[in-house]
Amino acid sequence: MKELHCPNCGTPFVHATSREGPVERLLSCINVFPFRCQLCTNQFRAFWSGARGNTQAFDKRQYKRLPTSIEAQFLTDSNQRGTNRITEISMGGCTLRTTAEFPRGTFLELTLKPTSGEEPITIESGMVSSVRPSSLGISFLEMGPRDKQRLSQIVLGLLVSLSPLPASGL
Q1: CATH number of 66-161, picked from 3.60.10.10, 3.40.50.720, 2.40.10.220, 3.40.50.2000
Q2: What does the pLDDT profile of the chain (170 residues) look like in tens digits?
Q3: What is the pLDDT of residues 57-80, one digit of tens each?
Q4: What is the number of alpha carbons within 13 Å of residue 71 lying toward its C-beta?
Q5: CB atoms within 10 A of CB 108
Q6: DSSP states of 53-88 as a string?
Q7: Residue 37 in contact with residue 11, Cβ under 8 Å?
Q8: pTM check: above 0.85
Q9: Where are the domains of the chain?
Q10: What does the alpha-carbon distance between residue 86 and residue 139 come to, in Å, rounded to a whole number?
Q11: First CA to last CA across the chain, in angstroms?
Q12: CA pair distance 93, 5, nearest whole angstrom
C-alpha cells in the first residue's frame, strides 16, 4: 500500500478502514475501499488492488495504534486527577496505563507531556472507550487545531521510526 497517499496532505501514512454501508460494500467489488490518513485524519476512498481475496485486510480501528511512552495527566468529569503513562497513541485516541477504575463513557481531559522541553498537548475532551485490568482505552473527542497539529508531529515521528528504511540505490 506504499503507493497510496492521502489526497489532502500527501502523506503515505494511510490505513484501510472497515467498509460501512451498502455503497462501500458495492464499491469494494471494484476494489475501491475506504482509507483514513493517520496524520491529518482525512477519510477518503481509493482504488486498491491489494485487497483482492483478502478478507482480513481491514481493521475496525480508524487509526493505527503506535507504541510510545508519554507522560499524561488526566482530569475526569467527576474531578478525579492522576498522572500516568500513555503506552499507545494515534490521532484518534490512546491507551493510558492506570490502576484507576473508570467506567466506559467517562469523560476526561488529558494533558500530554511529550518531552521535558516541549509544550504540553491538551486533549480538551476524551472518553473512556475500553477498560482493561491495568489500562484504559481513551477516544479523543475534542482538541484545538494547534494541539492537533502538534499531536500529528508526534504521530509522524512514531510512524517514521516504525517504517522500514528504503533500499539504497548504491
Answers
A1: 2.40.10.220
A2: 447 899 999 999 998 888 888 888 888 888 899 999 999 999 999 988 765 444 444 556 788 889 999 999 999 989 999 999 999 999 999 999 988 889 999 999 999 998 877 899 999 999 999 999 999 999 999 999 999 999 999 999 999 988 765 444 43
A3: 455 678 888 999 999 999 998 999
A4: 10
A5: 22
A6: T-TT--BS-SS--EEEEEEEEEEETT--EEEEEEEE
A7: yes
A8: no
A9: 1-63, 66-161
A10: 13
A11: 25
A12: 22
CA 135, 60, 87: angle at the middle one, nearest 5? 25
Joined together, the cell numbers standing for residue 89 give 497513541
Distance CA 8, CA 24 (A): 20
Would you state the cell numbers that stand for residue 113, as one nine-digit string? 507531556
